[in-house]
């Protein structure tokens, strides 16, 4: 029985309307009788009332309300720690579902065969559907394996495989936005059995409408996470398989400008972001970055400094169209960055 093998956990904070919409979608699904655990991150809106309302509808629904907001990524790890079923499915509170074709997923869960069931089409470009394979085989075929699994609700996984080491390292990686990245690493290192659903069941909901960090910030934390990948070939490919589509510097700049206009967070230093662009666009490891950038600065600092300073000034004032300071203050202004 599906309800004996799978537990659904929903992490939420201050999105009562989205959470209610998620409940409504689950009500009409074949997963409605599964144990549902909501981890409320100390919401200050009507989330508790919504949870109480739907506890009367779902027979096996439980609510865990934290005393403090511990953050979305630690809340994900707490969800994994709470799960007691053979399989775990952690959902966000604003996901979009399509349960019209999921008999194959139900069958795989009941068979207790796959280690991971991929239930989204997010980042799946040309993947074969209804495929029984392994993580390494997907990577060999050129799939964006890490990117697809980076979407947390994309996977239903065997609970026991997300072990204490994955959780421990996950807490260290919460600042890089991907608390389950070590679990993805483990799936590759141990070559997990993977099933790809015939149809994507879940897709990201309101993320694109709630951009709260710059594209540079995302690229940096993504690269930080990728540095934990042991295989150099997979690590390099995973970094390049970002929306940059091959590391094109020009495309990177275009994406940067577009995303910066949408970003609500303007706290990142422009110069740090500019240097990050060079690192990511050319796929440099940190030790190479030190050799090609820092050491030349030490040997012949004036030439390299002027080159990067002028390049930075061009991007800042001509591309990003920021207001240029008075000429007498220009050198001081640039030096501050």
CATH domain class name of the largest domain: Alpha Beta
How many discrete structural domains? 2
Mean pLDDT metric? 81
CATH architecture of the largest domain: Alpha-Beta Complex
Give the SSE string.
HEHEHEHEEHEEHHEHHEEHHHHHHH
Q: What composes the largest sheet?
A: 8 strands, mixed
Strand arrangement, major sheet = 3-2-1-4-8-6-9-7
Termini distance? Answer: 60 Å
What share of residues are in beta strands?
Answer: 5-15%
List unreliable stretches of 5+ residues: 243-250, 327-337
Q: What structural class should be given to the helix and strand makeup? A: alpha/beta
| CATH level 4 superfamily of the largest domain | Spore Coat Polysaccharide Biosynthesis Protein SpsA, Chain A
Description of the structure:
- The protein has 337 residues and is of the alpha/beta class.
- The chain has 2 domains: 2-209, Alpha-Beta Complex (Spore Coat Polysaccharide Biosynthesis Protein SpsA, Chain A), CATH 3.90.550; 212-335, no CATH class.
- It is built from 16 helices and 10 strands.
- Strands 3-2-1-4-8-6-9-7 form an 8-stranded mixed β-sheet, sandwiched between helices. It has a two-stranded antiparallel sheet with strand order 5-10.
- Helix 3 links the parallel strand 2 and strand 3 (61-65).
- Helix 14 (286-299) crosses helix 15 (301-319).
- The chain is globular, with a radius of gyration of 23 Å.
- It starts with a helix and ends with a helix.
- Residues 243-250 and 327-337 have low confidence and may be disordered.
Question: Which features does this protein show?
Answer:
337 residues; globular; 16 helices; alpha/beta; 13% strand; Spore Coat Polysaccharide Biosynthesis Protein SpsA, Chain A; disordered C terminus; two-stranded antiparallel sheet; 8-stranded mixed β-sheet
